Amino acid sequence: MPVEKVTQVAQTKPWYGALSSKYGEALLKTPEPGLYGQYTYGIAGERFFREIKDNAKITGTKCQKCNLIYVPPRIYCERCFEGLEEWCEIENKGEIHTYTISWVDLDGFRLEEPVILALVKFDGVYGGLVHKVEEISADNVKIGMKVSAVFKEKREGSILDIKYFKPI
Amino acid sequence: MFPKVAIVGIGYTPFRTITPDVSFREMVFEAASKAYEDAGVHPQEDIDSFVTCQDDFEHGRSIWNMQTPDNLGAVLKPIHTNCGDGILGLIDAYMQIKSGLRSIVAVETHSKASNVINRNHLIAHATDPIYNKPLNINPYFIAGMEMNRYLLETGTTKEQCALVVSKNKTNALFNPLAAYGEKITPKEVLDSEEMFSPLKRLDMSPMADGGIVMVLASEEKAKALTDKPIWIRGLGWCSEAPSLETREWGEAVYAKLAGEMAYRIAGIKHPRKQIDFAEVDDTFSYKEPQHMEALKLCRRGEAGSMIEEGATQRQGEFPINVSGGSLGVGFLVEATGPQRVLEVVLQLRGEAGRRQLPDVQVGLAQSWRGIPYASGAVMILSKE
Amino acid sequence: MSEKIKEFPGTPLSEKDIIEKKVLFTEWHPEFMWAWDTGIGYGRYFAELKKGRIIGTRCNKCRRVLLPARYFCEWCFRPVDEWVYLEDTGTVNTFSIAYTDWLARRIKKPRIPALVEIDGSGGVGIMHVLDEVDPKEVKIGMRVKAVWEPEEEREGAITDIKYWKPLKEE
Amino acid sequence: MGMRKVAIVGAGMTKFMRRAHETGKELSWEAAKIALDSCELTLDDIGCVVMGTAPDAFDNIHMKGDYLGDGAGAWRKPYIRGFVGGGTGVFVADQAWYHVASGLFDTCLVVAEEKMSSAMPHPQGNFITCWDMFTESPLGPSLLWFFAWEMNRYMHAHGITEREIAMVSVKNKKNAMDHPAAQLPAEITVEDVLNSEVMAWPVKRLDVSPTSDGAVALVYAAEHVAKRITDKPVWIEGVGWCLDTFYVGQRDLYYPKYVEYAARQAYDMAGIKEPSKEIDIAEPYDPFDYKELHNAEGLLLCGKGEAPKLLADGVTQRTGRQPWCPSGGALGVGNAIAATGLMKVAELFWQLRGEAGKRQVPGKPKKGVAQAWGDEMQVGTVIVLGI
Fold first, then answer.
1. Which of B19, B93, D234, D238 could bond B105 through an S-S bridge, CB–CB 3.0 to 4.6 Å?
2. CATH superfamily of B5-117+207-225
3. Looking at B95-149, which runs of residues are DSSP E strands?
4. What residue segments make up the domains of chain B, in order of their start?
5. CB-side exposure of D54: number of CA atoms within 13 Å?
6. A167 in reach of chain B (CB within 8 A)
7. Chain C interface includes D159 (CB < 8 A)
8. Does this model's pTM top 0.95?
C-alpha cells in the first residue's frame, strides 16, 4: 500500500538555494564568497575592444570566400569555417535593423522611463551590435533609422565603452 | 536495417502553475509510471535506453544529469541527457532505434519552472557574455526585437497576433491539462501592459510545471506492444546562428530548415494538404504565424490572414494549437516540444476528449528552444 | 593526424595576465535563486530531522530501505509501502580527511567527511561529517552516533545533525 | 544485427591549458577546423554536429551548447548537445555514432569543448551546485570528498597502498611528455606524489589532474563515404553507456559497476569476449590516479583489485603488453572534462592509424577502448575502436 501523499498545503516547504554572490549565505549559512563567471574576450574580441578602447573605432574581420565582414569580429567564418585574418575598420554609421522598447528591467520591475534597445547593422557588414538607443523619444524610433555610436570619454575595453547609439 | 519507429506509450501530469505537492523527482515518477503502464513495459526489464532533456540551471544544479536515472527506473541502464528541447530527446531515441542499437527507448522531459525565482537573470545568463550580457538588460527584449522585424517584413499585424492569443487560450479551455485556459478577446490582449513593445504582457506565454514521458519502439516491438502505435514519419532539427548579431530576425530559419528536413524524410511535398493539423511553437504570439510560414503551412506574409479567416481555429480547415499551445497550456521549458507531440499523439489516437479533431491521420509538432537562441525541431507523426 | 599536425592551436594565459589585466575580460555575478519543492519523500525526511529523528521508507517488494526517504522505489518502480524510523547511530563506510574546502582553499582544522551507514537501514549510507575524533583514529567500520543541534535551532535540514562522533559501545 | 558501419576519418584538438585566451567558441572552431582539414573536408560536407561539453557552470553560460554552436560548425545544421556529466566526452562519441548509424546522416562532426577557467573563484567551487541540493550541498562538500571516499574504499577493499596508486600519476605525466598539446607533462617520482600536499586524504595534489581549457573534434563518416575519404578508416565497433543510482549511499564505491555494464554493451557489440587479451590499447578515464585502475577493472581489463599489479609489472606502460593512457591521460594532458574524454578517443584514432608520433605504441595495435566516467561516481561511457 503506497505511503500517503502530501495533502495539506501547510505540509509543503520549499528548500532555498542560490547561485549568486550570496551563495554561502543562502546555502551554507556562512558569509562565503560567491561563484561568478570570468570571460576572456578571446582572440577576436581582444583586438576589437582594444580598438574601441584606444581609438574609439569599430572594426571587423573579413571572409574573402563568402565576401562577408563580421561585426563583432570573428577568427572564423560561421558559414564556410575558414579562418579570418583580414581586419577592416567600420564607419561609425549604422542602421537600426530592428528595435524594441523595453519597459521592464533585469529584475522584472517596471521602468519609469523605458529603454530603447536595437540591433544596429553597419553598411556592408554581416552582423552588427546590440545596444541602447538614446537622444530620441520612444515614439520616434523607426526601423531603418541611421544611428551612430557615442563612445565614453574614459574607456576600459568593454561593450559599455559605447554609451549608446544616437540618431544621425 | 533502419526499422520504423513508433510512439507506443505516453504519460504525463497535468500542467499547473505551481506544483508544491511533489518534488521534480516525484513528478517524473508519476509521468513515467503512466507511460510505462500505457506501453505495457517495465523500465528495468523491457526498456533498452533512456533519454532526458534538461538544462542544468533550470534546476539550479551544475550536473543535473546525475539526478535522472532513479526517477525513470533507469538505474544501471543507458541513460543520458540532451541539453535542448524535448523533441531532441525523441529524435535521439528515434536514432538509437533506427541504428539497430535499441528496440525500446523512453524519453523524459519536465518543467519545474515555478522553482526558479528570477527567470530573467537565468535567461540573461544564456546571452553572450562579452557582447550582450554586460548591457544588464531584461533578456526578453530579444522577443520584442524579433516581433518588430517580423511584423515589418511580412506585414503581419499586432491585431492578428492578438487573435492567436485569443484562439489558443480559448482552445485551452477544452484541454483539461492546460493551466491558462481563458475566454479572452483580442482587445484585452492589445490593452495589456507594454512589455517589450510591440510585445505586450498577454503576448507572452506564462510558465507552467509538468512532466511528460514517452516510450518509443521499433516496428517489431511496437506491433507486439500496442494496437495503436503512432508512427514517426519525419523529423528535423536545426540551429540558426546563436549570436544575436548574425541571425535572421524576420524569418524563423531554424524552423524552415528543420521543416524541410522533416518533409524530405516523410516524403511530404504539400504540407498544408498532406498534414491534417499542427502544433507549432507559440511561446510568444507572433511566433505562431512566423512558424506557420517557416513550416510552409502558408506562404510568407499570409499567416496573418489565415488566422483572421479562422482557418487555424479548432473547427477550421487547418487547426493549429488545438491543445492551447504555450499561451494556453503554459510554457513548459524543455517539455514544451513534447507537450506538442503529446497533443498530436492524443489526437491521432482519438483520445483528445472534447477537443478531438475528426478524421485526423497526420499531425505535425514543432518546437523552438526559446530566448535567447534560435534552434528548433519538427516531428511529423501519423496513424499509419 | 597527430604527427602531421605541426602546431596545436591554443593561446595559454597565466594567472598574472589576468591579475595585471594584460588581457581584456569581463565578469558576471549571477543573481539567481531557486525554491525547490521538497515533495513527499524529502518533505517528511526534513520534518522528521527537525524532530531529531531519521526516517527512511521501505519497498515491500524488494524489501529495501530507501534513505533519504523517498516516495518511490527506483528498482521496482512503484511507490514505497511504509515509513521506517532509523537509528541515529551508524557505521563508517568510507571517509576522508579534507584539508581544503569546497572552493579549494586550505582550511586550518581538517573536516572528516564520511559515508555513514545508518543502523536499521540494511547498510544504506548518507553523506555527513565526523567530529570529536582525532582524524588519525578514524577507521572504516568505526561506529558513530549523531550529534544533533539543540531542538530550538533545528530547521528541518540535513544540518540539524551537527556531526557524528565515535560511539562508545559497552 | 546488420548495423551500418561508421568510421572516424579525421581528428583535431587544441592545446590543453589552465587558462585559454580563446573564447569557448574559438576553441571549438580551432579543434573542429583541424579535424576537418585533416581529412580534407569542408563544413559543407558535414551533415550534422554533435557537441559535448560538461556543466554550464564551467563556461558559466546557461544553455552553453547553443552558445557554442557556430564555433562547432553548427550554423544552420542539425545540432545536438549530449550530456552525461564528466562522461560526456566519450558519450558524444557514442552519440555521433548513432547519428550516422541511423542512416539519417552520412557524416557527422563531433566537438567537445570545455573552458573551465571561466568558473571563478575556482572551477572546483562549482561542484557545490552539483550534489543533491537538499541533503548534500548544505554540508559544504568539496569535489574531493567523493574521490577520497572512493579511493579509500578501493584501497580498503583490496589492500592497495597509496604507493601502488601513485605510479599511475608518474606513468601518465611521463607519457604526456610526448604529447605536444599536453598541459602538465612531467618526469616525477612516486616519492613526489606521496610527498605532495594532502588535499583530502588519501588524495594528494599530484594524484589529481589539473583543470583545463581545451577542445577536441572528430569527423565521422558512414562506410561508403569513409572509403572515399581515406584508406585508413578507424571503425567504431562498440558503444555503451550506463548510469548508476543518484544516491551515493546505495552504491559500494569500491567497484564501478556502471563502467562494467557500459563496457559489456560495447564489447558485446564489438564481439569481444576477452577484453584483457583482445584489447591492444586502453584509455580509461584518469581524473585521479586511482581512477585509472578503478576504471580499468570496470572495463574488465583485469580482475577486481588486480590493476595495481599490472601497473607494477609494466604491462600498462606504453611499451607494455596493454598500454593504458599512452596519451598521458587527464593527469598529463589535462582534464578539460568533456574534451578530455574525446581526446582519449582521438588518441585511439591516431594510435590505430599509426600516426601518434613519439607516442606511438609499438606492434601495430588493432583494437582500442576509451572510457570516461562522470557525475557523482555514476556514469560509465565506453567506445571500442578497431581497424
1. B93
2. Thiolase/Chalcone synthase (3.40.47.10)
3. 104-112
4. 5-117+207-225
5. 35
6. no
7. no
8. yes
